[in-house]
Amino acid sequence: MIELVDRVAYSLFSEVPVALGLPSVYKSYCCVCGRRSRRGPTWKLADGLVHGWEIDSHWKRMIERREGLRCEVCGSVSRFQYLARVIMEELGALDLGYDSFSDYAKSVHFKRLRVAEVNGCGALHGYLDLNPELAYSEYGSEDPAIPSEDLAQLSYRDREFDLVLTSDTLEHVPQLSTALGEVERVLKPGGRHIFTVPVVWDGRKTRQRALLDGERIVHLYSPSYHGVWDAQSPDRLVFHEFGEDALDYLQTPATKIKVRRHPGNPSISVFVAVKAEDDQRPRPAGG
């Protein structure tokens, strides 16, 4: 009931003003830090990305809220707030009485898990880092303290992790099925890969924008980049744009996958892939 009241109040006093270009007047609850704060759009989708993605004004607005509605306290945007919510629900944190991820992250229940965060989960990373067993990596990292991991060839052992987190990463990986197989390999039986990818649920099908031919990138459509459009960083190149059939592309043989869609923003989706309890098949690293 509290969540319903919060949702209605948020719609009236936050979403409506924001849609009109006005600041939010409602303090929304953030399940990452457990605090309430006003939030408003601080990010705009680049025209080049809108054109290449072929999305309409509704989806542009939803994606801008996905990445731009930010908690003033911890800095978590809507995508990471919903990711935190799903993690807590999947791991039973709410049943244990934890209302925020910040509280759950301090608990023995979370700290005893073996967790891999492959590329940072925004402001959520600061709380994930409270886990002494966290394996945190950033692709292409030049910081000696932060290892670089290639999702298509992870360095981790078979069946090492209870939880693997990736957020808006898989769409940039050319070897999608290989990467998903690698995550499956390093998960313990019963372990979870909880992740986000951008999905436009408007009836379109998933399409591959680019592919690798040896070391050469072959563009099937005009190049599209996420992040800062003008920078056009190679690791931000989009290889896959996901549509209504996303689950068909994100399923692996030994996992059961489902999607959790945000009740108020169709552009926010969190996928949960659970590895079968009885899967003991050894798989070589990178295979």
Largest sheet: 6 strands, mixed
Shape: globular
Spatially, the strands of the biggest sheet line up as 4-3-5-6-12-11
Mean pLDDT: 90
Structural class: alpha/beta
Helix content: 25-40%
User: Could you give the distance between the termini?
Assistant: 48 Å
Features:
287 residues, six-stranded mixed sheet, 28% helix, globular, disordered C terminus
Secondary-structure topology with pairs:
Elements lengths: L1 H18 L8 E2 L6 E2 L9 H7 L3 H12 L9 H13 L10 H5 L2 H4 L3 E4 L6 H4 L5 E4 L23 E7 L8 H11 E10 L10 E2 L1 E4 L2 E4 L20 E2 L4 H5 L4 E7 L7 E7 L12
Parallel strand pairs: 3-4, 3-5, 5-6
Antiparallel strand pairs: 1-2, 6-12, 7-10, 8-9, 11-12
Descriptive notes:
About 30% of the residues lie in helices and about 20% in strands. It has helices at about 1-20, 45-55, 55-70, 80-90, 100-105, 110, 125-130, 175-185, 245-250, and strands at about 30, 35, 115-120, 135, 160-165, 185-195, 205-210, 210-215, 215-220, 240, 255-260, 270-275.
